[in-house]
Write a structure and sequence with these properties.
It is a single chain. With 305 residues, this protein is of the alpha/beta class. The chain is 36% helix and 21% strand. The site of S-adenosylmethionine (SAM) has 21 residues, from helix 3.
């Protein structure tokens, strides 16, 4: 029996959904659209544009590859695509193709949600007139949108398994599961190591989480870690990049990308920054959290000695 879905409006008017099993909303209460725009689409475009992705891209056949991890209602991919199409920004990046690999265990939700999401006025260049089924196709599909080819594939699988099957390389990861405290198994060092394996030299990961466990793990894997815009009352999200973003570029981003504050840096040297671990991909969230508590206790004991 399929349960009733409870769509709700967020503060910017865009639709989100309640998830009773984790008692969380699918998006930031201040705006589902705003979150996708500020923490995923806009900073990724800005960095690619300003670091000269276009020159490299010409050599790669003009393709930008994205993993939309935990696709849900699809905002992160849909807002990026809309932003690229609006004013033909994709031409500024030299893009000929946008390839999206969507991963989520709830394919039915994606099929129900994408037409509703695209029917909203916040989408400027994309509308529900588009054949929405392309975003949820379980077989590879493609279509032409102006001079941009859109290629998609939806993997209706557990994120941990899906990532192991993918081959490098991808340029962007949008990592958007429910929160680390609730769905801990999707925030482990093993999951982030898969992204490290999959991401190109341009590779960047975006997530809404500002948790020291997440930032500490990403840094321990060799990523450069930055902070993204705080949407509403939140602390800001996280960007982890293979490239270094210099101070001038951060300043030019007008608040899209920041260095971590001194306080945030300091927390990355504490037990709060220890990773969640799930070496065989078999632990429950609770087991992972409990094991980390033991590791944190050891960390503190060793520090005292
Ligand atoms: C916070 S919502 C994602 C919101 C989404 N990015 C959007 O823009 O609407 C989290 C998503 O994680 C999915 N999910 C939960 N467990 C998962 C798993 N083990 N593997 C992949 N996806 C999972 C849920 O079905 C849900 O759609």
């Amino acid at each position: 029996m399929t349960r009733e879905r409870e769509y709700v409006a967020t503060a910017d008017g865009s639709l989100s959904l309640k998830e009773p099993s984790v008692k969380e909303l699918y998006h930031n209460l201040h705006g589902a659209y705003a979150e996708a725009f500020e923490d995923y689409a806009r900073p990724s475009f800005f960095v690619l544009d300003r670091l000269g992705f276009a020159q490299d891209l010409a050599r790669e056949g003009g393709r930008l590859t994205v993993i939309d991890a935990c696709f849900g209602l699809g905002y992160n991919s849909l807002v990026l695509l809309d932003y690229l199409l609006e004013q033909e920004r994709y031409k500024q990046l030299g893009l000929k193709e946008l390839q999206i690999c969507a991963i989520d265990t709830d394919h039915d939700l994606a099929c129900d949600a994408v037409p509703r999401v695209l029917a909203q006025p916040c989408f400027q260049a994309l509308s529900s007139d588009i054949d929405c089924s392309i975003f949820t196709s379980l077989e590879p599909r493609s279509m032409q949108l102006g001079d941009l080819k859109l290629s998609t594939l939806f993997l209706n699988q557990d994120l941990r398994l899906a990532l192991k099957q993918l081959e490098p390389t991808y340029d962007l990861v949008f990592h958007d599961p429910f929160s680390p405290r609730k769905v801990t198994e999707l925030w482990t060092i093993e999951v982030f190591s898969q992204y490290k394996r999959l991401l190109s030299a341009w590779g960047m990961l975006f997530t809404y989480s500002a948790a020291p466990a997440v930032r500490g793990t990403l840094r321990s894997l060799g990523f450069n870690v930055y902070k993204t815009t705080a949407v509403g009352g939140k602390k800001g999200g996280t960007m982890a990049a293979n490239k270094t973003i210099d101070k001038d570029l951060m300043q030019a981003s007008n608040g899209l990308i920041y260095e971590l504050s001194e306080e945030e840096e300091a927390r990355l040297s504490t037990s709060s920054a220890l990773p969640y671990r799930d070496p065989d991909g078999t632990f429950s969230g609770e087991e992972i959290r409990n094991n980390r508590l033991l590791e944190q206790a050891d960390f503190l004991k060793n520090k005292k000695n």
